[in-house]
Design brief:
The structure holds two protein chains of two kinds. Chain A is mostly beta strands. Helices cover 0% and strands 50% of the residues of chain A. Chain A is built from no helices and twelve strands. The chains are: A mainly beta, B mainly beta.
């Protein structure tokens, strides 16, 4: 079956530090890959996505590249802000739609001044 | 209102109670979902409704009973729950086509005592 593995958190960084959150996946076929973010007390929001190999998703300074050869979709940001503190979820959908998302366990990011 | 709205935001119920969670989407989507979010576990897809018909039920205990009366509303009826059912229950919706994203509500924090 499908699965998503994320690095365990929490990740604690100082403001303006570089962020990497690792994500690897196992799936049949050619899944679409997503990063969702959950701010405190909120539901999940789509942060970025990539639908085929070598695609790069980007939003709000965050980037992730779909690497089929390493089955990875690592999230990066060059300079984090306190407002980026949240839980980040990597997910995949092997149907190409959002209907059957498989999520990782989430990685909590805490950014301090 | 726009987006996906869930009520109530918080619910405390005894093991013998019967309660219902409500989800409403104002996005014109044709698919709705219930997810369970427990601490340190991946989000679990519970139920999927597409065009108001249940298309997936991931081995969820019968004490959880979904209802989708129309494409904008989704309910989760709860009865005789167990303390381990305490979690954040998230509703989501999407439009069933390729590469679309799911929009999530803020969730209902359920505590079973």
């Amino acid at each position: 079956g499908n699965s998503v593995t994320q690095m365990e958190g929490p990740v604690t960084l100082s403001e303006e530090a570089f962020l990497t959150i690792n994500c690897t996946y196992t799936a049949t076929g050619y899944p679409s890959l997503f990063w969702y973010v959950q701010y405190p007390g909120e539901g999940l929001q789509l942060l970025l996505k990539a639908t085929k190999a070598d695609d790069k998703g980007s939003n709000k300074g965050f980037e992730a590249t779909y690497r089929k050869e390493t089955t990875s979709f690592h999230l990066e940001k060059g300079s984090v802000q306190v407002s980026d503190s949240a839980v980040y979820f990597c997910a995949l959908s092997d149907t190409g739609t959002a209907s059957k998302l498989t999520f990782g366990t989430g990685t909590r990011l805490q950014v301090t001044l | 209102e726009t987006g996906v709205t869930q009520t109530p935001r918080h619910l405390v119920m005894g093991m013998t109670n019967k309660k219902s969670l409500k989800c409403e989407q104002h996005l014109g989507h044709n698919a709705m979902y219930w997810y369970k979010q427990s601490a340190k576990k991946p989000l679990e897809l519970m139920f999927v409704y597409s065009l108001e018909e249940r298309v997936e039920n991931n081995s969820v205990p019968s004490r959880f009973s979904p209802e989708c009366p129309n494409s904008s509303h989704l309910f989760l009826h709860l009865h005789t729950l167990q303390p381990e059912d305490s979690a954040l229950y998230l509703c989501a919706s999407s439009q069933e086509r390729m590469n679309t994203e799911a929009f999530f509500g803020q969730g209902t924090r359920l505590t079973v005592v």
